[in-house]
Amino acid sequence: MSDIIKILPDNVANQIAAGEVIQRPASAVKELLENAIDAGANDIQLIIKDAGKTLIQIVDNGSGMSETDARLCFERHATSKINAASDLFNIHTYGFRGEALASIAAVAQLEMKTKKKTDEIATLIIIEGSEVKEHTSCSAADGTSISIKNLFFNVPARRAFLKSDATETSYIIEEFNRVALVYNDISFSFYNNGKLVTKLEKSTLRQRINAVFGSNYGEKLINLGENTNVANISGFIGKPEFARKTRGEQYFFVNKRFIKHPYLNHAVDKAYAELIPDQTYPSYFIYLTIDPHQLDVNIHPTKTEVKFQDEKTLYGILKATIRKSFGAFNIIPSIDFEAERALDFSGLERKGEIKMPTIKLDPDYNPFISRSQGANSDGFQKPVDKNLKNWETLYEFGKELSTNKPEQEINKPQNEINIEHEQAACFNYGNKYIITPVKSGLMFIDIANARERILYERFLQNVENHTPYCQRVLFPYTLTLNASDAELLGDIMPEMRQLGFDIEAFGKNAFVINGLPSDAVNHDINDMIERLLESYKRNQLEAHYEKKVNLIRSLSKNLAGKYTIQLTNEAMQMLAAELFACNIPNTSPSGKRVLFILNNEELEKKFK
Ligand code: ADP
Ligand code: MG
């Protein structure tokens, strides 16, 4: 039998390889931008026509190439960036495979002019479908200019697969941004169809983000920074109130390279949990610097995927770092009131378990009342049994010490609360808001949102501690539901019991209720359960909470909304105290704002 195996000719092999590296104009833009940066350029122009389908040109002022290199760079596996396999573990450039230029040259008509500073004369190369058409000297500026004309001219199937110009242009802009958002010390210009559309001067990173996304963008961001022995984390994260309905600007960079990393993204989501409404997404620009030995960037040909050796540790550090920034920027009470000190991960074993920073607090501290007051008649039956947070540090209440400061103090913060009176006056506006003076101005609390937050954390804690507060009802209540609701209720009955419902199945589609969580006693049982099941079902569709969490969210939301009792001054103070005992007093579990302070300056401005 005759032999049948043939070695593919280079141009065919290159075309096949090109398919992996160059899927669309944006991939060529990415490779060329990265080469310019690897060449040390500090000024880069990107010029495209017809979404890059007709022309992609990159002009850089980097190192340039010698005449020989100019020819060699189009060969496959031609790279100046690594010499030996061991170099693979110590890569500080974008490229290292030596595939990009060979791939592009295989599927386009390419023209390159390049000149080293030390050379008198530049080199011109014209190459079409891997075939060199011209190779001469010419005159040109220092650096390299590469024009890619008619991408995929010889691969019609690929060309046909490209999307509309608008879409392909947006892919190009995205690649451009991913580079521009890292190299703020490089100036970039971007020309689209003959028009200069973006000009980015050298600037700080924050200015660069502003320049890319609009001049007020920076105001929506807070700084992020943490230096640990595992990774260095810096950058910016969006303030929770600016979270958006679409996954907009979410950028992770590792060692200056844009990456996608669902697991780390999850760490960010977790850090934002309960600070933003469901189905919204925060912006972030997170820059990780990590020892290249801890990374494997080689797992995906287009290199937006990275594998970390110790992802778990990184996950924990990232989440803690974000939470710390929220604390430092008063978005949630700081987790460490000794503040500025960096989180200490020095004792962390590489494979060790992550411990969240511990919270040191005064368990008896109550900003409104000198002592915790115990049971109250309005449904807030339970004294706050958890640590009251030093929430007032959030609001810069001033440096004076309060008159009603607790005697027993653990790690007291420097700036104590200063309420004007022994017991602060609370004003109830329309049974919707509580207004109360604080040192820096007037604080407005949304009662329903505050109640939702308090109930949520209380239920959560009761369930965790296995201490449901069940109050027996005077007469057992029988509830009849339609078949599907009955099925659902049957399914979540164990969790209902954990929350304090004394409930049992009672024949077909019927249930008997002997007791309720004490926070639910004054509610119409039928109405409450029906609403509870409704929001439970909605949550099931929209978000994937575990059963217990879904139930707690649904219950606290429904109980909070149905609250119409006239609040006495004492009850309002209790509500405020309970609110500030919560982990996250500023937002409700469904992400709504709970309070804000109209500060003295704003108030004074109103009268000018
Ligand atoms: P890689 O970047 O993986 O090395 P490329 O095919 O992208 O592979 O480039 C091949 C080589 O050509 C590079 O290693 C570099 O030496 C040279 N080169 C490419 N682009 C430029 C440029 N803009 N300026 C200077 N040298 C370049
Ligand atoms: Mg390259």
Polypeptide structure, described:
- The protein is of the alpha+beta class and 608 residues long.
- It has 15 helices and 22 strands.
- The protein has helices at 10-21, 25-38, 67-72, 100-106, 156-161, 165-180, 205-213, 262-272, 311-328, 447-465, 483-499, 525-542, 547-561, 569-580, 600-605; strands at residues 43-49, 55-60, 109-115, 122-128, 131-138, 143-149, 187-192, 195-200, 221-227, 232-238, 250-254, 257-259, 284-289, 295-296, 307-308, 427-429, 433-438, 441-446, 470-480, 502-505, 510-517, 595-599.
- β7 and β8 form a beta hairpin.
- α1 packs across α4, α2 (25-38) runs parallel beside α6 (165-180) and α10 (447-465) packs antiparallel against α13 (547-561).
- The structure holds adenosine-5'-diphosphate and magnesium ion (MG).
- Residues 31, 34-35, 95, 100 line the site of magnesium ion.
